[in-house]
Write a structure and sequence with these properties.
mainly beta, seven-stranded mixed beta sheet, four-stranded antiparallel beta sheet, 11 strands, 45% strand
Length: 124
């Protein structure tokens, strides 16, 4: 079974940057759509950004548009986060789907495999 591992979380000041990476333990991410999601305390999990298996289709939440960039590498799918704000503080999860919905690329129920999450804290 595909096991996802997130890395790169941490504490950063407002306006700073972090880069999250999602990898697969013992497997390849080839052929999977990958999504980044986040969950802040007391809030529902939400889609942040998603990318299809080829990298040709990406989707961003309005709240991160222009600040976050998702990309696919050889073995990882990365989320570059710039101009971070306190409201970006959350646990960030990566997830994989065999098929990406064209209508709702970041719909949570399309994603079958989930990582354990990485904490991102934006605070001065």
């Amino acid at each position: 079974q595909l096991q996802l591992v997130e890395s790169g979380g941490g504490l950063v000041q407002p306006g700073g940057s972090l880069r999250l990476s999602c990898g697969a333990s013992g497997f390849t991410l080839d052929g999977y759509a990958i999504g980044w999601f986040r969950q802040a305390p007391g809030k529902e999990r939400e889609g942040v950004s998603c990318i299809n298996h080829s990298g040709g289709l990406t989707k961003y939440a309005d709240s991160v548009m222009g600040r976050f960039t998702i990309s696919r590498g050889k073995a990882t799918v990365d989320l570059q986060m710039n101009s971070l704000r306190p409201e970006d503080t959350a646990v960030y999860f990566c997830a994989a789907a065999k098929v990406m919905s064209i209508v709702s690329p970041c719909a949570l129920n399309n994603y079958e495999y989930w990582g354990q999450g990485a904490q991102v804290t934006v605070s001065s």
